[in-house]
Amino acid sequence: MNHIAWTILVFFIAEFVLQLTADRLNLRVISNNIPKPFQGVIEPETYRQSQEYLRTNTAFGQFSAAFDLLLLLIFWFCGGFALIDNWTRALGWGPLATGLTYIGLLVGLKAIVDQPFSLYATFVIEERFGFNQTNLSTWVKDRLKALLLAVLLGVPLLSGVLAFFMYAGDAAWLWCWLLVTVFMIGVQFVAPTWIMPLFNRFEPLEEGELRDAIMAYAASIGFSLEDIYVMDGSKRSSKSNAFFTGFGRHRRIVLFDTLIAKHPVEELVAVLAHEMGHYKMRHILKMMTIGILQTGIMLFLMSLTINTPALFEAFYVNQPSIHAGLVFFGLLYAPLDFFLGMIVQRISRIHEYAADRFAAETTGNAGAMIETLKKLSVHNLSNLSPHPFYVFLNYSHPPVMQRIEALQKV
């Protein structure tokens, strides 16, 4: 093993131990006492169930993470990367087809390994706690659709990246950055109208009190809104949510049908005010810009290391190639991506506080947003009091208790 192999190995083990420590701390702060803001809101039995849901998901997450790490190490040190590389080269295809086949096989193997865990999470854990609403047929169709999308969208993108690094010389990373940026922006435009409807049905919100209230609020903040959509989230889960997606005339504000069924008009307006706040404060654009900058950093560093012989030696591959270098760099880049991810999550949490405040101030009803957060947390069996270290590592949204405290100060 060389220094690159040791660097990757130490990081993956350290990250695993770090997450185990965060999980342990998160479970240790579980209390039998219902937090004061939720007293009278959540029943003791439901609170106990939320804690059991946390324990179950934590144990399952630890097992799946340990399995993934062990499988990666076995595959790596038994020469799996070299074996597949030799096999794809023996096919005698051109460098681009060989590269696509190599990466496709690795991705396919990982997907096959992941499916039993996804099945268990959906049909055992989510079923046990009353969330699962899907059936095996829908589950299989979802995965087949995802596979089709991966081929239709991922193969052209990956082909471009491989081709640029093969033939564009020192400027390859710049051309790849441009390609990936165009792809990321393009997906934002087509996803609401072409991709998302493959998985769920989106219907315009029917005329009535809720629609009138939302349109009136949007007009009051100067938010151009052509329509509000209702998504059949109940087709797969009883959990509730709302989200904003897309740009320009392709943008959509979407309410889950499960959300509408459980909240009065003023709370639903508060939820959408939060989502509109993200748009008005350009959070979506900012996060996309951050993602584009992260991609640029990654591609530049890739251009510096992708042909380094030591990178291939670390994975027992004798003949350097762009396709194998891309995979190995992804593993080498993991430590930096981990730390950048924590920074991005911190920014995301700041954005959530800002969107909450926007909703409270523009609706003049902070109480509606607070009640919505409480009900969503109770219904989704959220962890009401996570450990700060666990939040630091894993949360893109602030804990609900902290959001409520911030809203009470508005």
Automatic annotation (TrEMBL):
It comes from the Bacteria. Its main location: endoplasmic reticulum. Zn(2+) binds at H274, H278, E352. CDD domains: M48A_Zmpste24p_like. The keyword Protease applies. The chain crosses the membrane at residues 63-84, 91-113, 146-167, 174-194, 214-231, 284-302, 322-344. InterPro entries: CAXX_Prtase_1, Peptidase_M48, Peptidase_M48_N. Residues 204-409 form the Peptidase M48 domain. The active site is at E275, D356 (proton donor). Residues 32-201 form the CAAX prenyl protease 1 N-terminal domain. PANTHER family: CAAX PRENYL PROTEASE 1 (PTHR10120). Belongs to the peptidase M48 family. This is Peptidase M48. It comes from Desulfosarcina widdelii.
